[in-house]
Amino acid sequence: LFDCGEGTQIQAMKSERFTLSSVTTIFITHMHGDHVFGLFGVLCEMQMIALDLAKTIGQHPRNIKPFKVYGPPGIADYLKVLMTTATGGKGPLVDICELVQSTPKPPYSQGNMRVRQLQCDRNGVWQVVQDQSESPKTVKAVLMPHKSEMSTFAYVLEEDKVLGTLDVERLNKMGIPPGPIFKELKKGKVVTLPNGKTIDGKDFLGPSTPGRKLAIILDTYDSSTALHLAKDADLVIHDSTFHSDMAKEAYGKGHSTAEQAGLFARDAGAHNLALTHFSNRYVYETNHVINAIGVDVHVDEAVEAFESDRVVAAEDFMSIPIIRESGKRLLAEAKDAQRRAEAMIKEEIKMAEMEDRAVKNPKEAEEGEKQTKAQKKGGRRNGKGVGKRVDLRSRIESL
Ligand SMILES: [Zn+2]
Ligand SMILES: [Zn+2]
């Protein structure tokens, strides 16, 4: 679970797809209330669910695994106060890990809390989680600027790739019988056979499927520090507090515009983009509100910057399935490329027709050209021009 604003516990109860019983780990981006005020309630609820389950299956409460919380320095103190004042030290079992830039302080325990600190590497990246379980995955984090007194963590979750299937038939033909050797070969390892020969599992594996990648980019006016981590992400969830009409305001308040979110997704080579954290000046449903501006203007703007229409305005209870099959992803890419190619061909036909007209009737052609130029100029909102491609970094610098 990434962030825990006020009301998370209630919304989780209302949700048909999401349940707190499936949560083992919570990642906090920064200590602002809309990201952290619901944390303690959620942890208490998770503990209650775990205790109920333990009772049902006859497990001793002592065997309940602690929940994990990762976040900025201060998260341990924040929870400590609530643990001691609200639960008399009998609160949920929590392993807290503070992500720090300087030398980590020694770990300590207090009541049901265990606290440690984790320092970033030389490149400013936190290797937050390296999960080697049945479904191996990593979570990495970098800092992004938000307010003068507070930065935000960008989190990127990535699954390991799934290796292809083992070519058993070929191995059998080579006289290698199924057994423990197959298990090693399936992992792509080099194995020594009883006859002393070595074979490489990788030579007998089908094509692997890339793991899924999710990037959480919240509350920042400059997400460019997270671009390299989010490279090729299947889904980017990005702060989109304002429309670029209010770019200066967004910058001043430490937030991103929909255009920045789109540029981030494009520059990262991401496949899908979900916009979130809209200022309450924008509404989801414009029908019954006078002078309302809908969040659809954010989507339009992000689509243009992303150069892809795979953009959605996230809302409560929305579920976005991320498909593991690489084939599907390639299909989506192929469709995008086809769309771009078709648009280019159309443009070329138009130009050719214009040239044709110019030869036949120079005056009429001149009028036509003027019109097309005007259309092109108006094509992009705010007259940002069509020729030059802005990248995220230069867009932020211009603010
Ligand atoms: Zn914030
Ligand atoms: Zn916020």
UniProtKB/TrEMBL annotation:
<dbReference type="GO" id="GO:0046872">
    <property type="term" value="F:metal ion binding"/>
</dbReference>
<dbReference type="InterPro" id="IPR013471">
    <property type="entry name" value="RNase_Z/BN"/>
</dbReference>
<keyword id="KW-0862">Zinc</keyword>
<keyword id="KW-0378">Hydrolase</keyword>
<keyword id="KW-0819">tRNA processing</keyword>
<feature type="compositionally biased region" description="Basic residues">
    <location>
        <begin position="373"/>
        <end position="387"/>
    </location>
</feature>
<dbReference type="InterPro" id="IPR036866">
    <property type="entry name" value="RibonucZ/Hydroxyglut_hydro"/>
</dbReference>
<dbReference type="GO" id="GO:0042781">
    <property type="term" value="F:3'-tRNA processing endoribonuclease activity"/>
</dbReference>
<dbReference type="GO" id="GO:0005634">
    <property type="term" value="C:nucleus"/>
</dbReference>
<keyword id="KW-0540">Nuclease</keyword>
<protein>
    <submittedName>
        <fullName>Uncharacterized protein</fullName>
    </submittedName>
</protein>
<comment type="subunit">
    <text>Homodimer.</text>
</comment>
<feature type="compositionally biased region" description="Basic and acidic residues">
    <location>
        <begin position="355"/>
        <end position="372"/>
    </location>
</feature>
<keyword id="KW-0479">Metal-binding</keyword>
<feature type="region of interest" description="Disordered">
    <location>
        <begin position="355"/>
        <end position="399"/>
    </location>
</feature>
<dbReference type="Pfam" id="PF23023">
    <property type="entry name" value="Anti-Pycsar_Apyc1"/>
</dbReference>
<feature type="compositionally biased region" description="Basic and acidic residues">
    <location>
        <begin position="388"/>
        <end position="399"/>
    </location>
</feature>
<keyword id="KW-0255">Endonuclease</keyword>
